[in-house]
Specification:
Distance between the termini: 27 Å
Number of helices: 10
Shape: globular
Largest sheet: none
Radius of gyration: 17 Å
Structural class: mainly alpha
Length: 183
């Protein structure tokens, strides 16, 4: 639903049913996944990025009480990206640093949950957050590092996100035309 679209009503019904099932079973992982994914769906279907922040942070709090560092790393990417989407650079940096502290240099830890590497994606968030905070020289360096890490990890989806965000930085720096060809 978050990529292909759905109605708000259908998404809400599926969310409520899934969350209720997870709660009845006592499955905290499923509960965290439903809550966090619903936040992402609220952002993509309803345009409510503030709800993505709220649900992403709630999912992360649940995950942090589960003894599974790969789950924690993956789910913490939601509030990092949610704050990224609202342009809150400081919160994006804080959440991305929490993910990076969990994964270390492991490009694979948590990747099986969403199909992208939490480590690679958080390098993207850090670079973008630096842009939002006006740290443009730092942002260029971080984008270069993020792109290198994405290619080394073979994480082509995140590399695409990085290239798009790098074009936003170029636009902010007044060099949008030359970087558009690169994109």
């Amino acid at each position: 639903a978050w990529r292909m679209g759905d109605t708000e009503e259908e998404a809400a019904a599926v969310f409520e049913e899934g969350r209720a099932l997870a709660e009845r079973k006592g499955d905290q992982q499923a509960r965290a996944m439903f809550i966090g994914r619903y936040g992402l769906i609220r952002a993509s279907i309803a345009g409510s990025v503030s709800e993505y922040v709220r649900y992403g942070e709630e999912a992360a709090r649940i995950a942090e009480n589960i003894d599974d560092s790969s789950l924690v790393a993956a789910i913490r990417t939601w509030p990092a990206y949610a704050h990224f989407l609202v342009g809150n650079g400081n919160a994006s940096l804080a959440w991305s640093e929490r993910v990076l502290a969990t994964v270390g240099a492991d490009n694979h830890l948590g990747k099986h949950f969403f199909g992208y590497s939490p480590r690679v994606s958080m390098h993207h968030v850090r670079a973008s957050a630096s842009t939002f905070l006006g740290r443009l020289d730092e942002s260029w360096t971080r984008f270069d590092d993020a792109a290198r890490i994405a290619v080394e990890a073979g994480d082509l989806e995140v590399d695409g996100w990085i290239q798009y965000s790098r074009m936003m930085l170029a636009h902010a720096c007044g060099v949008g035309d030359s970087i558009g060809d690169h994109g």
